[in-house]
């Protein structure tokens, strides 16, 4: 239970950092970190396949696509960065306080039911489940990865002269 609270706190911190940072690359890293923490939470909830997909697609592929996109953007000047940082800080200054107060109120006044996880299926080997029972999930994963690869290739393709 304590580890779950630590993971949820880390998830909230990483989400808050992702939203409040000014630099796009730091936001992408924060998004990848958030996705990785979420994958650990999914794994702890006995969903190893969902955790693997979350880690590979969201934390890996999506982050690569975002960093590729960010690399095509133009950097802003130091003066503009300072102004933007102040504007963002003023805009989101209340956000951490609202998250903390909402969390404290939920813990204090909301009776959270304890849900039991269903018993795992008879098949204990993830390879059997993935290759024999979850064909569409595997096909979807492959299509997403191939689309990401083609997207990166199109971004870096030199135009013909």
Task: Give an account of the 3D structure.
The structure is a single chain. The chain has one domain. 76% of the residues lie in helices and 0% in strands. The protein contains 7 helices and no strands. It is flat and about 55 Å long. It starts with a helix and ends in a 5-residue tail after the last helix. The model has no long low-confidence stretch (mean pLDDT 79).
Largest sheet: none
Structural class: mainly alpha
What Rg do the Cα atoms give? 20 Å
Mean pLDDT: 79
Strand content: under 5%
Chain-wise SSE layout:
Layout: H1 2-20, H2 24-44, H3 48-71, H4 78-91, H5 95-109, H6 126-133, H7 135-156
Give a short synopsis of this structure.
It is built from seven helices and no strands.
Key phrases:
single chain; 161 residues; mainly alpha
């Amino acid at each position: 239970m304590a580890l779950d609270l630590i993971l949820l706190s880390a998830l909230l911190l990483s989400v808050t950092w992702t939203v409040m940072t000014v630099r796009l690359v730091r936001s992408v890293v924060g998004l990848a970190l958030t996705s990785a923490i979420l994958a650990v939470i999914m794994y702890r909830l006995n969903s190893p396949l969902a955790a693997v997909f979350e880690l590979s697609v969201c934390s890996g592929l999506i982050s690569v696509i975002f960093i590729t996109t960010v690399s095509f953007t133009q950097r802003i000047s130091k003066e503009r960065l300072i102004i933007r940082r102040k504007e963002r800080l003023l805009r989101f200054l209340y956000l951490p306080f609202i998250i903390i107060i909402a969390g404290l109120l939920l813990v204090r006044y909301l009776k959270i039911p304890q849900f039991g996880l269903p018993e795992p299926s008879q098949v204990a080997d993830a390879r059997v489940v993935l290759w024999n029972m979850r064909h569409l999930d595997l096909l979807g994963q492959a299509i997403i990865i191939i689309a990401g690869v083609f997207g990166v290739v199109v971004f870096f393709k030199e135009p013909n002269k």
